[in-house]
């Protein structure tokens, strides 16, 4: 069915319900980053894939709001439809609520599906629209009425994370959570985002591509833990383990009624951005304590077992990357064709050679030349490009292993390089190593660290428009809070956190450069001014040195790289073939001193 | 009356009203930083002065919550009373609402004065206490019932700021505000904080020490501007000017009734942290749009006229400081006694020599030796110390002139200095100059800049626990938002903003070092990556060079200082006597190159 036909069906349903404008998003009931097909309502309606975008439909008009990352993709997707592209990153463009207030009249009604909209978003729309005396309805799912072959919710089997990998038993984690509940005064805590339950109950799922978290909830009180999940997802082993830990298992869908029946005197902790508006309506009779999830802070601080395993994962992943690079250069040298897409498939296959690999941790970004300058570029048939020796190649990818989740970016030359590419590359590397080797005061925020990282780029009038880094889950989501490194991150960097450092430099139409390592926050030293932290490097994968302009990289960074490459070779070579070792040996050769 | 007697009277009133706990703060109805004596309720009850502190009284207990800046002052003040000191900066100490939830039982009632508590604070208490089923009452002022000689609200005369100083007429500013109101959809905007009205209507007041803002409100709609102020504060000239600008003048107290009578269909913009809970109750029938004040962003971007005048103010203030330093060193060299307090008085007198001086912009911080290590140290008779040649002296002070507001910190040696003092001083200076000379990408936040500033200190294991800088008003408050430089500031640094840069280094019991200049954000250059900003230095006052360890200060900073001091001498000497010029000449001598 064409988009315009779908719009006609939607408008008919809107008319029946007295809805003057309807908002369609790609969000699931848990506000997960990666969403199963069933909840890709905006993508289905508009044809526009990608992680950000919201459609608004009125009787006469339809628009898709998206940010600058997706302008081109959205334009292409909307070509055959009447939906207008609203470029929300542009200056002066109204956000959805402001547009609705300007274009609808008092007493008109805006609808959205409260079951798939988080409380924070829903409340913000309702409050804003009320200012213009607009009404809202959130108890309807008009897309469900018109999407005839809508996929069912996924039923992937979950599997357990052994205590020897998790580092803490379920019971230990439950005890920790209950201790935190006491300090907030909560008598119940609803784990809304799916990765909270995965962490607490030491399991992972297979519901969603690139995401190890299945659709589920957990409700914890001082004397009970109820795990809401569809029974098809359980195996006898997992059921037995959960029961042994004193956990009650209930059907996923029974959460609504259970919340409705919760004793009214109970104070329940919920996270406004990870619980659907519909569920909070079921909790209306209770005292709701709004807070960020207790599990967020507990799981961000990795325990020793997790860190030890993650270090293994990084070595496996580094070896997989070297296997891929050896293959890539060998094909190119032999004049055999390689494209972004075929390279992407090969890289996944290299990771899959290792037993503990489960799935890629996100859709690989494989950007050759100008494609490297598109942030969040995801290669597919329509954008695929053959690789040649004319430009540089940006590869941002990661794997989810039994031992943990990885995320590594490298930029490599495929042939001749320009002086500008070298200067950009060296500035990015300088910036990355400045932060990676920094010693900083305890209590420093991600934004302070971000400023330090950008210094080396600012010096040359360069900059990049994304954040410098993000937290990484342990065998969980590759983007995990609460910490991050960006100008807006006031979260403090704490001991035990795992974070990426990934500055970049992008020239539209020419090339993109990004270099990314993962790091672990550790103690450096203590003075009378307090404790100082440093980052322990976790990523072991060669950093190309042919692209370095040695005249502008400080000597201490050259020394660091030489030592790093010695260690990279030592750690990865046991996992490689003779051919791969030869390639790696060459990549790890010392940088000669600039003369 | 002793504190314990006051507590007895308060408890009697609490019993009459059925209040189980009563919260007493030092806040005025506008949430101003500097508060007239009438609203110093906590100081009156507990005897503890200082800017931060809240008392909670129950039938059997009383506690004063304050932060680490005031632990010593509070201990001294509370010695004779039953009020317990609650050290709220310490780890694990419950904030007031958590303490109340743990120590009171469901259905008990907590009281506070809603007329002197801002909406944000009131709402946060009410919401939190409700979680433990505690009740709140905000319609009572029990302190007023027992404080027999409570000062009246001040009646200082206001005066006008000529357009030639303000750079914009009242009418121009009203037009700008109305344009912003349109974009937020507000049909009325209540200017709650007093400096908003001062900026909009080009006047200043004399109600409060160190603060140029009188108690007043302004209510602006698309076709009216109502200025609420006590008529005693107006002169015929100001009344005439306001009337000529189409402004209606009403009594300060009539704001409540006017808000109550506002048409219910009107959408009114209020700032939750600058409006009393009581006033929002008067607005209950209207649609309240919560936002930060429109004026906040308009007044933060200084216009050319303001900047030109401020530059004059900085020269006058620099000259006043040189007059003070010349006097100080002359007395000390002659063996005449000087104390922190007498120095403070002299410094104010040096500023007052200039016609355009109105008042000091905050109580000067004069910290000799260990006193310099106490942040927010305010000298008074009880802490005053004689100055001698044994230690270094930190002077943080500023003036409010017709031409603008200044804020300068210098740390100077009074005799022999130690190597540690020199190393601390040089690291602070390095840090200050790193940020002052930085070129940074447009869109950078205060937190990113803060990180850059601290680098030079972190390198030596040093750090400081306050923010790096704050915005400064034009002839208005010395601390003015929205921007700032600290790990928590996500506000972007914009062109035209005026900000301080003031890193420090403090060793408890030994000495404190801080060096502070004010800067103006300007354009540096533009590249294909966007615009880059830089800071224009505004402060002209010698930076002591005897305390510099030249071996650890980069040559480009030494060069910068030499050029700076040439300019300092050129700008200030015309305002100085021959003796003062001689002193200044010596202070501005070039730093010899390190060998």
Labels describing this entry:
595 residues; Creatine Amidinohydrolase, Chain A, domain 1; Creatine Amidinohydrolase; six-stranded mixed sheet; 35% helix; globular
Structural overview:
2 copies of one chain form a homodimer. Chain A is α+β, with helices and mostly antiparallel strands. The first copy, chain A, has 3 domains: 3-146, Creatinase/prolidase N-terminal domain (Creatine Amidinohydrolase, Chain A, domain 1), CATH 3.40.350; 159-297, 3-Layer(aba) Sandwich (Creatine Amidinohydrolase, Chain A, domain 1), CATH 3.40.350.10; 304-583, Creatinase/methionine aminopeptidase superfamily (Creatine Amidinohydrolase). In chain A, the strands form 8 sheets. The first copy, chain A, has a 6-stranded mixed β-sheet, sandwiched between helices. In chain A, helix 4 runs parallel beside helix 5, helix 14 (304-333) crosses helix 19 and helix 16 runs antiparallel to helix 17 (446-458). Chain A is globular. Chain A starts with a helix and ends in an 8-residue tail after the last helix. At the A-B interface, strand 21 and helix 17 of A face strand 21 and helix 17 of B.
